[in-house]
Design goal:
It is built from two helices and nine strands; from the N terminus they run H-H-E-E-E-E-E-E-E-E-E. The chain is α+β, with helices and mostly antiparallel strands. The protein has one domain: Jelly Rolls, CATH 2.60.120. This is Cupin.
């Protein structure tokens, strides 16, 4: 997969332009899911948790995640792993694109 081409598709999509958020599932199998997400500046994905271990790989922009005990900031090239059932939100400090990988739950 060409993540750069997907990045360009997401940020130019009318739905992203209207809502400030757009996601596309790249892989969906019983034991793995990979999603690319574009999130506009000042948009937040509300607090949630996944029942499996996840990674968040920031491709562009600047993200801030609020965890139960701390904040973590990610910029392009950063990768963060979160354990299963760890509550967090995702806030875009800049227009951002990231890849979310979810393991089996």
């Amino acid at each position: 997969m060409d993540l750069n081409a997907l990045y360009d598709e997401l940020i130019t999509d009318d739905r992203y332009q209207r809502k400030g958020q757009l996601a596309r599932t790249l892989v969906h199998t019983p034991d793995l899911r990979v999603v690319i997400i574009a999130l506009a500046r000042d948009r937040t994905i509300a607090e949630h948790h996944a029942s499996a271990t996840v990674t968040i790989h920031c491709l562009s922009g600047h993200l801030r995640l609020q965890l139960p005990d701390r904040q973590v900031e990610l910029v392009a090239g950063n990768l963060l792993a979160l354990g299963a059932d760890l509550s967090h939100d995702v806030h875009a400090l800049q227009d951002s694109v990231f890849v979310l990988t979810l393991g089996a739950s």
